[in-house]
Task: structure prediction
Amino acid sequence: MNLKTYKKLIAKQINQDFKSAVEIVEIPISKPAASELLIQNKFAGVNGGFDTLLCRGEVPYVNLMPPFDLGVEAVGEVIAMGENVQDFQIGDAVVTTIRGGYREYQVIDANLALKVQQATPEVLTLIPTGVSALVALEQVGEMKSNEVVLVTAAAGGTGHIAVQLAKLANNHVIGTCSSEAKAKLLRELGCDRIINYRTENLNQVLKQEYPNGINLIFECVGKDVFDTCVENLAVRGRLVVVGFISEYAKNIEQITQPRLYHQLFWKVASVRGFLMPHYQEYMVKARDRLLNLFYTDKIKVAIDPTQFNGIESIPAAVEYLLSGQNCGKVIVRF
Ligand SMILES: NC(=O)c1ccc[n+]([C@@H]2O[C@H](COP(=O)([O-])OP(=O)(O)OC[C@H]3O[C@@H](n4cnc5c(N)ncnc54)[C@H](OP(=O)(O)O)[C@@H]3O)[C@@H](O)[C@H]2O)c1
Result:
């Protein structure tokens, strides 16, 4: 191997804006130690919201001081390994989900790599994005059958997996989105009621068509979408706060309104936060189930068709995701 250095993306300073916070650095490729793999990454998944909040210093469960590595999931191929590694071979496709996925090469303990059939963007959509959808619906949302489930940002990387899992559990699934192309994807995935919020009023549709309210809400968007969702919860309804992407690139909106318990108490409804790092014990089972559903054609994976190539393209990919244009998972190719 003649390669001596590789590029990765780091946060060089805390900044409100992702592009201004980051820098590409070139560092030597190190030789894997006895129990380590050297992986050549092929694709990385883009988590524009998380990336931006990290660079703003607004992720309370990690206390990172710049410079720190960026990115999470990456998939690639093993190109070298230490002498004690037993379960891998050169050329194996592997997924990694530790912090620092925005890098061309990585050396990692073999225990932290997962062997998959092929190094494709699809597996990155399932691990860890799809895993988050599954655990949020089942563990936090207590997903049942024959209920009404609403997924916001339903055609996004996380949302389109949540839609399919809620359908597989035999629920009536409503998905929100902002374009006809996204609505088309949701129709293909079997979504029962698609609400393009640019052409229909979300609150009106929910009130008119679901007078008994929504049993389970997988909420990704925040702001007035969150308010509308809370307002339309059914008796004993559960709303899972998966994220609040409409606020990630902006200052937090200050609002004045009656306290939340006025909305929840009379309907014995609940609002529950979800963060995958606090549900790690469900990761392995959820991951295996999802891969199985995918390999047996029970769920489909949508990859956004916009091409982002190389470490240099990551700020544009983050900006693209936060602009709300993507349909399916946003991926960077190395
Ligand atoms: N809690 C966790 O552990 C966890 C794990 C993974 C992801 N998440 C969260 O899940 C959500 C989706 O993440 P993702 O990475 O899969 O992104 P994504 O859904 O692929 O992309 C974001 C989507 O959000 C929608 N959106 C609605 N209003 C928006 C606004 N004002 N600005 C930007 N986008 C808007 C857009 O779709 P429409 O315009 O069609 O609505 C856009 O395509 C995020 O809130 C993320 O933080 C949480």
